[in-house]
Amino acid sequence: MSNLKDKLVSSYIAFEDYLGHDSPIHELRSDAMKVFEEQGFPSKKEESWKYTSLKSLEKTNYSLFPKQKEKHIELKDVREYFLHDIDTYKIVFVDGVYSSFLSETTHDSIDVCLLSAALNKSKYQPVIEAYFNKVAEKDSITSLNTAFAKEGAYIHIPKNKEVEKPIEIINFSTGNEAAVMLQPRNLIVVGENAHVQIIERHQSLSENAVFTNSVTEIFGEKRAYVDYYKIQTDNPTASLIDSTYVSQQQESHCRVHTFSFGGKLTRNNLHFYQYGERCDSTLNGITIIEDKQHVDHNTLVHHTAPNCESHQDYKGVYADRSTGVFNGKVLVDKIAQKIDAFQQNNNILVDDRATINSKPQLEIFADDVKCSHGCTIGQLDEEALFYMRSRGIAKKEARALLMYAFANSVLESVKIPELKQRINKLIAKKIGVSLGFQL
Amino acid sequence: MLQIKNLHAGVEGKDILKGIDLDVNAGEVHAIMGPNGSGKSTLASVIAGKEEFELHQGEIVFEGAEISELDPEERAHKGLFLSFQYPIEIPGVSVTNFIKTAINETRKAKGLDDMPASDMLKKIKEKADMLEIDRKFLSRSLNEGFSGGEKKRNEIFQLAMMEPKLAILDETDSGLDIDALKVVANGVNKLKSKDNAVIVITHYQRLLDYIVPDHVHVLMGGKIVKSGGKELAHKLEAQGYDWIKEELV
After folding, report:
1. Average of pLDDT values for A255-272?
2. ABC transporter domain: from which residue to which, for each copy (chain B) (predicted)?
3. What is the strand order of the sheet B54-62 is part of?
4. Do A406 and B92 touch (CB under 8 A)?
5. Interface contact B93-A405, CB threshold 8 A
6. What digits encode the pLDDT tens for the residues B148-166?
7. CB contact (8 A) between residue B52 and residue A382
8. Contacts A390 to B, Cβ<8 Å
């Protein structure tokens, strides 16, 4: 039996008493806790966790309710983690607690605020009842988050509202304690014909260990447009399990981009459910890792209605002893005719010791569909390297240029120019070169 | 400018080039002709520093310095340029960004600052016009989806931008129609001066009507078996290579 599990189970009773038993999600929490108590952390025996072990996390003595730092974080110290060159809404948490000082929320025709408020105030109750935990899966790791769900971003964009400013959700951990566990829970409801762009980050500000088990539910109503960007560039002592569940209604467009460059262990569960016709889903990712970093992408697109599209494009560059996993599933129900589902996973192993496990899965029960998938695992093209070097571009820069070029198809679909530029810089920094131009 | 002495090179211990001697002086154009598989492209690759080839014997001296231990980029920085027979497609990097990077990396190696953006643009415009290259072409991904002719024209565009001391044109004429051939040859001729040199590697005499060589060498079985003036190219065009084989026997 694992230490962390025991600690979580025994802490839950006190946590429940502290929150009070009259919370609107009290029963959900209790049921979720039962699931986690029965199943515990997923092990490598489970097919979808075959290549990702949580053993070392389970042995770490994480503080579950971190003490709060007395001093404010100064804005200048964390400015680099924000998109500071443009105006944005910001929902910022420090060690799991909302920071009004760093945030910029609003209730002006849209709600960009806190889940704790939405859970506790009666005016939000209809939304909570209609959406909370409705698309999230009931597996043990998500259930663990549900059981302890207390704080996170709550974003509700009403019908026909086009939000002009991007919304940033940032979870800082200060390293106030040797090791902390955080479980943010985000709920995002985008109304009919509404548009929104969201950027999410988890960032530790010290080298102390942090384990984040984050769950985000996104609901795109009819003709909604949701653009969601995940910037995963955390310190090498940080581990993240990020479960994001997207529910789409008719003609909605939802896109999630995941940029995984940092962290020790990162697991992304990104599951899309299409419930109306002519939906469009995009799941894109760039992974560039080194040393002993590990990134696992577990994607699912479930087509339950006809005439929809889905696009998955995941690129990975793995150096040193790093390991990557891509496990991408496309499920097409019998009723879901005329589906166009595309999945692509391309990988470059920079070193012999690096590993990628890529497993595309298509389960198609409809007979009139267009589904394609492709997976490549290769090295940097030696001919291309020689070509570039013969034009005076040094080996390191030539390699970097090839890696850029490789990842470019995903970068191109980033719709916020300042963000695209930022990611460009993050990639350059990760690869350790400056190329002097933007692709 | 370039002295190749008794060059033996190949792969896995086996010689493909079996003792090449070649002297190229500034202001000269040399043509290297020969049948398929005679080692022409290997020679070009070995001079440019392709790592898959091993140098077994001999030396390559460029501008007075032995270069056979240098990396390909270091040779490029010294002023060597190889126009590829099969230019590589690099999706995601535009022609403009690629050439900017190549030029500024070369300047960096020489301790110079980046070329000012306005100078770069002016130069790009000038060279693109000379080679009748459409501006739209420059923002396309390098060689991706280019026709054979476009790829070759793009190679010569890069040559024009980099202004090397020695240009090696490996089968630049293949894939070009006669109009494109004239444009490309015209471009090369405009770049020629008393301070630089060109090695033209080709199957056919056709390109040599436009880029007129001072010396023609016949490469067969990894050796230069015959050298002469431009009339040698005409004879090869008319009579093929068999008569040389017979001479050798």
Report:
1. 97
2. 2-246
3. B14-24, B2-11, B54-62, B65-66
4. yes
5. yes
6. 888 999 999 999 999 999 9
7. yes
8. 48-50, 72-73, 75-76, 81-82, 84
Question: pLDDT at position B28, please?
Answer: 94
Quickly list DSSP for A311-335.
EEEEEEEE-TT-EEEEEEEEEE-TT
Tokens of A165: 């400013």
Reading the block at residue A5, the tokens are 């599990």
Would the pLDDT of A439 be above 70?
Answer: no
Q: Which residue has the tokens 């006190």?
A: A14
Question: Where on the phi/psi map is residue A206: left (φ > 0), alpha (ψ -120 to 50), or beta?
Answer: beta
Provide the token pair at A330.
């496309």
Q: Calculate the average pLDDT of chain B.
A: 91
- Give the residue extent of every domain in chain A: 3-275, 382-439
pLDDT digits (tens, 9 = 90+) for A416-428: 999 998 998 888 8
- What tokens were used for A177? 């304690």
Question: For chain A, what is the largest distance between any 2 Cα atoms, rounded to a whole number of angstroms?
Answer: 71
Q: What is the pLDDT of residues A57-79, one digit of tens each?
A: 999 999 998 888 777 788 888 99
CA triplet B28, B95, A394: central angle to 5 degrees? 70
**Extended strands (E) in chain B:** 2-11, 14-24, 29-33, 54-62, 65-66, 80-83, 90-94, 141-142, 166-170, 197-202, 215-220, 223-228
Tell me what percent of chain A is helix, strand and coil, each rounded to the nearest 5.
Answer: 25, 40, 35
Calculate the average pLDDT of chain A: 93
CA distance A353 to A125: 52
Crossing angle of helices A395-411 and B95-109, in 10° steps, is 150
CA-closest candidate to residue A378, choices A400, A353, A350: A350
CA distance B32 to A76: 64
**Domains of chain B, first to last:** 2-248 (3.40.50.300)
Q: HSE of A399 in the Cβ direction (CA atoms, 13 Å)?
A: 15
- Inspect the interface and report whether the beta carbons of B92 and A439 lie closer than 8 Å: yes
Compute the distance between CA of residue A243 and CA of residue A149 in angstroms, rounded to an integer.
Answer: 13
Q: Span B100-121, mean pLDDT?
A: 92
CA neighbor of B213 nearest in space, from B188, B178, B195, B238: B188
Name the residue among B52, B73, B92 with its Cβ closest to that of A404: B92
Most A CBs within 10 A among B51, B84, B99, B101, hence the mutation to make, goes to: B101
Report the greatest alpha carbon distance in chain B.
60
Q: Is A116 helix (H, G, I), strand (E, B) or coil?
A: helix
Identify whether the C-beta of residue B99 lies closer than 8 Å to the C-beta of residue B161.
yes
What percentage of chain B has pLDDT greater than the value 90? 65
Looking up tokens 């790592």 gives B51
A410/A259 Cα distance (integer angstroms)? 10
Amino acid identity at A183 = Q
| CA terminus-to-terminus distance, chain B | 33
- Evaluate whether A358 touches A376 at the Cβ level (below 8 Å): no
Give the global pTM: 0.84
Contact B107, B113 (CB under 8 A): yes
DSSP category for residue B88: P
